[in-house]
Amino acid sequence: MDMFFDITLSEKNKTQRKNREHCVYAIIFTGRFSLKRLWKETFSLQNSIQKGSSHIVEEYLQRTMSTLSLTIMELLGMSLGVQKSHFKSFLEDNESIMRLQYFLPRQNPELTLGTRPQYDPTSLTLLHHVLVCKLQVFEDNKWYSIRPNFNDFVFKIGLSNGRYTSCSHRTMFNNKTPRKSLALFLRPVR
User: Which sign does the torsion angle of CA 2, 60, 9, 7 carry?
Assistant: First the structure.
């Protein structure tokens, strides 16, 4: 992840999306007229990896992350009282997106958001966030910080039958250390 975000802006811009290509780089700076601004860099890869893509990326995205997310969906299906293969068969051929996110430190972090409060509209999100505790979830009218652990993933359920609900979450900045995260958004083929 560091290798990508450390390259020059002109090199990053070469990954800009053109006519439904599989990856895209973006700098997101919005909220010029808002009290809380969004400011982050992202690099997204779609599961349908194209020719010439890195074998390591393809292996990680298609085999490791997709296999892990489909296993979690099997367990969720069993807990909902449906057959183990119910969600797996629905999501096995998927259009998942893997997104690397980089949030630079800000002098006034209280004036900047990495992401606004939101719910993920995907079936499942797997998140690996590194070192900096700035992911927050909203529960009982209060924001709680999720402590990062390099060896852990955070799982956020998106779509279900209402028995499991998605959590509202946001990302904050700090004034000392960049925050980096890797997310896989599991979603069915359209």
Answer: positive
